[in-house]
Amino acid sequence: MPQKLYREWREAAGQMRSLLQELQDLGVDELGRVPRPEELPLCPVDGSGGDLCRPETLEEIRTDLGECQRCPLARGRTRLVFGCGSATARLVLVGEGPGREEDLQGIPFVGEAGRLLDRMLFAMGLSRDEVYICNVVKCRPPGNRDPAPPEIAACEPFLARQLAAIRPRVILALGRFAAQTLLQDDAPVSRLRGHWRSYQGLPLMPTYHPAFLLRNPAAKREAWEDLKQVMLRLRQSDG
Ligand code: URA
Questions:
Q1: Distance between CA atoms of 23 and 30, rounded to whole angstroms?
Q2: Cβ-based neighbours of 155, under 8 Å, separated by 6 or more
Q3: Cys-Cys with 151: which of 39, 62, 147, 222 at CB 3.0–4.6 Å?
Q4: What is the pLDDT of residues 182-191, one digit of tens each?
Q5: Residues 6+ away with beta carbon under 8 Å from 114
Q6: Ligand 1 contacts CB of residue 109 (under 6 A)
Q7: Which residues, other chains included, contact 144 with Cβ-Cβ below 8 Å and sequence gap of 6+?
């Protein structure tokens, strides 16, 4: 080995020895390797965990859901309606469950209520691509009946994981069903709406369901007040 290289090697080895000695003096008895992001454990759904965990992706949740047969709703569905929109949305809208059109297309809120929802988003200066839209249950309840408790129990963990994956600035709960399920509060939506609540540390605003607004246009005024609060909160969270 050439003299110069030998000297450099000895110097580096000496520095390494004193570094190891220093670490030993500090009480470090094991040197860890910095894990690659994909090796980190998944973050809990409550958003805790900081940098020591990684959020699950929507694709991973969709894969885990698969051709779900976890509840009886699976038997009657044409398509499972997972959710649509941006994985980094600042606003997530949660409805009740797919209706006839949604069941056929596999996309949430594409029927008449969905067209009103699009107009509500437009009034807020938002488009479908910027937000994320999903439901409490992912398969159509027959005849559009309310989802039953075991059906909600089977499906709600996936909604919780979707919300944890996105961690939006605001959740908008559309209607009694979404608001009561997410908040675990059986107060009527007329009482819940318009008041900020929290879901897993995320601000949640309950408001009327667009299908209700189609039947009760007079309630649109109150819904607009709720949407204005959401717009303000989103603006505030920008700065
Ligand atoms: N109503 C809902 O609650 N969700 C949909 O996706 C469609 C209608």
A1: 9
A2: 70, 71, 73, 136, 137, 138, 139, 147
A3: 147
A4: 999 999 999 9
A5: 101, 102, 108, 210
A6: yes
A7: 99, 100
Give the Å distances, CA to CA, from 110 to 134, 159, 211, 213, 220. Answer: 12, 19, 12, 16, 20
Identify the DSSP state of 70.
S
- The reported pLDDT for the residue numbered 116 is 98
> Would you say the CB of residue 99 lies under 6 angstroms from ligand 1?
yes
Q: Tokens 């309606």 belong to which residue?
A: 81
Q: What is the pLDDT of residues 20-66, one digit of tens each?
A: 888 888 888 777 777 787 889 899 888 888 888 999 999 999 999 99
Domains defined for the chain, CATH in brackets = 37-238 (3.40.470.10)
From the CB of 108, is ligand 1 less than 6 Å away? yes
Angle at Cα 68 formed by Cα 65 and Cα 74, nearest 5°? 145
> pLDDT at residue 148 above 70?
yes
Residue 212, token pair as written in the block:
């209700």
Instruction: Give the residue with greater pLDDT, 199 vs 28.
Output: 199
